[in-house]
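step 3/5: co-fold with flavin-adenine dinucleotide
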Amino acid sequence: MSDENLRRFLSELSRKVDKSKIFTEPEELYSYSLDASTEFKQPPAVVVRAGSEEDVRAVLELADRNRVPVVPRGGGTSLTGGPVPAVPNAILLDLTPMNRIEVNVDDGYAMAEAGATVLEVDKACRQYGFFFPPDPASSRIATIGGAIAENAGGLRGAKFGVMKNWILAMEVILPGGRRVRIGEPVYKWRWGPDLISLFVGSEGTLGVITKAWLKIYPLPEKVVRVLGVFDRIEEAGKAIAQIRRRGYVPMILELLDRETIEIVNESLGYNIEVAEAMVIADVDAPRESVWRIAGEVENVMRECGGRTSASDDPVEMERLYMARQGAYAAVTRAYPGVLLEDITVPLSKLSTALKELDDIRKEYGLRMPVFGHAGDGNLHPNICFDPRDEEQLRKAREMFLKTGEIAIRLGGAISGEHGIGLAKKELFLEEIKAVRGEGYVEMVRMIKQMIDPNGIMNPGKIFL
Ligand SMILES: Cc1cc2nc3c(=O)[nH]c(=O)nc-3n(C[C@H](O)[C@H](O)[C@H](O)COP(=O)(O)OP(=O)(O)OC[C@H]3O[C@@H](n4cnc5c(N)ncnc54)[C@H](O)[C@@H]3O)c2cc1C
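step 4/5: write tokens
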């Protein structure tokens, strides 16, 4: 894209969008040049803080006409470089000012604009005795638009799945500024193909999501938090697989390994018992049955070699939850360089994956705390290194690839929830080669070409 195109775009933009929403000074652009991974850096040429659908339409119409790249951005909490421009001179479209939420409890949904945070939606539902189940650990900052574009999961994913399971309808602005509404805010509608799924996980490469109608769910009557402590990591993996195998579906089913527990204790000032692994299971059920079911889940953990306890004390429950939710922050506080993996493996292979990860850690000698939403097979190995040390950086990159290869070999996925972005392009190609069939790349390129013929949407990302 030439400087001339950008100049023309900017001059036309200032006639259509209020100047107070347009930012071009280097110090204003800097904080938009990174995401939470901090691994990739590219400042945009201009930031537009969209306050309305009209702003988004104006940007996409002008950008398409002038062939200027556009990168949508929500909270910027992506861990894969998703909202970081892959090319220079891009327009960054910040959706966070569009944050209206309306809960329609009678019809069972919440309508949220793209910039509302996931936690704000959840809180709005709670006033009515309902909640919004997807809960990425970043939910205070991550937006509905970003969570849909990444198909985010979270701690409650073991029972409630990921964003795609909770969308009834959405509005999207396509390149050229055309608005489309997909789906209906009712619990059943039928016409195909399923275009909602096309935009879920599209990482800003097809269009800009401006609002969504989301299913809501009644708050559980009672929750008991079960804790299992294990002397061998494989036993923890086995316990998680067995809990699911025997038909229990805890609302949360999370794993923290020894290195994670140590780092959480050191960095966040907790005093959690250090063991090879810890499993947290939230059993939600009616009051009269919740302790019985919690006891059964404890029994499964004990059969697999764990020591267990259970609590409904809100302070103790919150302490464990915050330790898990804060795990990534704790690791990044302790280490200046962290490559975060996000693999998913079949539940029956969880134990094997954990063992193989431990082997990689031993082979390379770098610290690699592993935690994750293991109840849905999703593991986050965090490869820690000193970025000033070339040798450590080389090892970390190799470990990153080997970890992704474990997922492919065991029949899983290289990304459970963080997406591809810039971080996983290489591994994504390997996954495509290994399992997706020779038509896959051609098919996704044809879809991209039809929706975004001028290639302005977040170029250089998943549509390689
Ligand atoms: C501490 C921490 C914990 C995390 N825990 C989890 C977790 O438990 N589960 C999980 O799934 N993820 C997690 N993440 C990753 C991240 O929070 C999620 O991917 C989140 O959904 C990103 O939302 P965002 O609003 O920050 O999007 P951004 O980071 O701003 O953008 C992400 C991608 O979405 C695109 N995008 C953003 N808004 C729109 C829009 N309106 N229309 C079209 N495309 C758009 C961007 O172009 C980009 O490609 C975590 C991150 C951090 C920092």
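step 5/5: annotate
The mean pLDDT is 95.
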